[in-house]
Amino acid sequence: MSARLAVEAWWPLLALALALPLVWLAWRRSRAGLAQGRMAPLLLLRVAALACVAVALMRPTWLAPSAQVSVVYALDVSRSVAPSFQAAALEWMAAADAAGRPVRSRVLAFSDRARFADSPGALLRTPLTDRLGPAAGADDPLARSVTNLEAALDGAWLGLEPNAVKRVVLMTDGNATAGDTWRAVERLRREGVRVFTVPALVSAGTDAWVEGLDLPADARRDEPVLATVQVYSQSRQLARVWIARGSRDIASQQVTLAPGLNRVALTVKLSEAGPVPLTARVQPRPAATQSAAQPAAAGVTQTITVGERPRVLLVQGSAAAGGALPEVLRKQGLEVAQAAPGELPREVAGFAGRDVVVLDDVAARDVAPESMTALETWVREQGGGVLFVAGPNTYGESGWRESALERVLPVTFEAREKRRDLALLIVLDRSYSMKGRKLDLAKAATLGALDLLDENHRFGVITFDAQPDMTVPLAPVRSKRRAEDLISRFTASGQTNIYPALQTAYRVLADQKEVRSRHVILLSDGDTQPADFQRLVKRMADNGITVTTVAIGGEADKALLENISKWGNGRFYFTESAERVPKIFIEETQRLVNESFVEEPARAVPRRQAELLRGIDFDSAPPLKGYASLKAREAAEVTLSTETGAPLLARWQVGLGRGAVFASDAGNRWAADWRGWKGYGPFWSQLTREVMRRERAETGRLEVTREGGVVSVSLSALSPDGAFRDGLTPAVRVSVLGAAPRTLRLRQAGPGRYLLRLADDPAAAGAARVELLPGGGVDAGLVRAAGVRDLQPPVDAEDRLMPPDRALLQAIADHTGGRYAPKPAEVFDPMGDTVRLNRPLWPWLAALGLLLWLADLALRRAPWGGRR
Length: 868
Prior knowledge:
The protein has 18 helices and 44 strands. The chain is of the alpha/beta class. The chain has an eight-stranded mixed β-sheet. A six-stranded mixed β-sheet has the order 25-24-23-26-27-28, with helices on both faces. A five-stranded mixed β-sheet has the order 5-4-3-8-9, sandwiched between helices. The longest helix has 22 residues, at 36-57.
């Protein structure tokens, strides 16, 4: 930026040019009576005065760059910042001013608000208070219980010199408890203000505390449930975390806390029904050098409503009878009644008093059709739960296919018989990237698929690199030896080009119109040349040819292969390791020939995070020895699958109830090794609880929150069939320590929703308990569903002493172009910043024009000089 002259208008110059002839004429006429020596000076004075006025009307301004710095030091005086740091900050400010000599330097203190001080010494004399008042004014003391970085940055902006390079030095721990920090940071960045952040030393205090206690929505008597204690720690340390029922500890664990928020899961078992208050606490263990134990931090209390034990009706087939499942469920706190398949109730009323029906390896032929219909109605219309466990008896002669039970399950059952007419063409990538182990496994996978085919099936292999080759001509499977010899001979070479191979497969299978099922399995590990795959594959699909694709490794074109499987109405498999390719080929071939079971080792792999799998380590689970071939419905949630993607555990919501299917058995044959696994009992109990009848969450929910000093109580009420319950006049009992309980009414605020707001209420400042009362249309079922809610006393965020948020302070400095933890002299580094100083020249020109006009008058009126 260089200095220059700027004007706002040019018309005064034109006006001056037009006025000069008039000035000359006037001068000519006014010569009479004046001495000859005065005429020329008078003309010059008038022209000069007029020129000054004209140029002044152009409003000229001199623009000059400046690198002078204006700085505001913002010091955090909240309770979380150590007093020793505040004293050291004053010395830092003095050193910075001495090094930089700013054009303007100001200091402000901030906590809930910002306030300028007359000098650094006066900064520490700023009036402070420990609590934020209801409506703090500008002259009220600053509240040390709040840190508002937005107020600090906005206040600092107001104290900066407009015509100077702008700097703000923010001295804080960065733990804002109010305001929107980034909103203020963005404003300063747009205004060209660089923020330099200095991390503050925090005060010493409790280094671990309980942030919250998460309890499950449903709990039953003698049922192990997981309670999660949220513990915040300032350092890595050993601590004891426990949950107490009154004065009795019911769960305890010694853990190593990491810095920050820790979630500690404890298993609790409650033997009494009804509302049960639980308190979570943490005790940091003393260091080796300390002799006295540290005091325990204040606990957090929540109330859980405990129901009766879950009531399970377990129906086992002949092969499953005598298995471990009944005893495992009882040990996990479930009430189990057993029945034979023929004893399953044939009317809906027969399921009364049950929460879930478990069918363990039950054959369809052993269950009466009336029982299936009654079970379907109970699940759909009365909210029951059904868990189907597969096994060798799952299918029987006709199986559960298209039965009333299948309609409430999240899967459909495959047919038992093999498909008699099948033409299978395997298209293998033999490019150079497949050389070695991958190609050997691909050959083994192809041979494994061949072994599963019957003589009436047709089988062929196309291998490809840049060009396709009909390695094994498509023909009926009669002499497998010939095909095995041809498969073992081909080698890897060339580049990958999928399209010609698919074209060849299409031409070969298009001639097999007499075969009802024609299928391609395409395997590749690399990228391919672009082509119109969509048009080709859709033409294959239109002609009844399906395409399944298998991608190996990260170099494979996964997106293309997945699209080919979609266009070809097949399946898509992806594996990082070629070791899984044989399993994929076997599973896909078994699916094609409609085998009911897959009896080979398979590991259970979680597909997504789910509450029913919480705390269960499937990495340590032994492999299953087999599973039933099932197809998950589109609306189902597949929670467990095999490594190749076959569904093992699926669940869904059906009507008012829930259904789930486990594709392996309960430990009699396929899952026999699971019986010695430590996750066996928790898996079955948590799965059973997941699908059992829900009497609470679906019919009512009571929520109590506190925000900004206002307590909000909300009630959601639904009928058992899911309809909103309107027109109620619900009441709650609010109990606050040290005050008599009060009964307060809620008002309807929406369909099935009722609200109560308490402002300036004792409940807003201390611990409170809120419970729904019967009456006003509220029945006992809704009271049980709503439960009891505890409201913890508000904890001052400044008392939860966090370490400095260095990441935030670094981000603020980076975003505005400042520096984190700077040296005093670095604050005044121009960094190429300059501001433009605008010095208007028109006042001086106007004044000069006035002086020249006065000189003209003086020269005309002066008595000296004589007349002509």
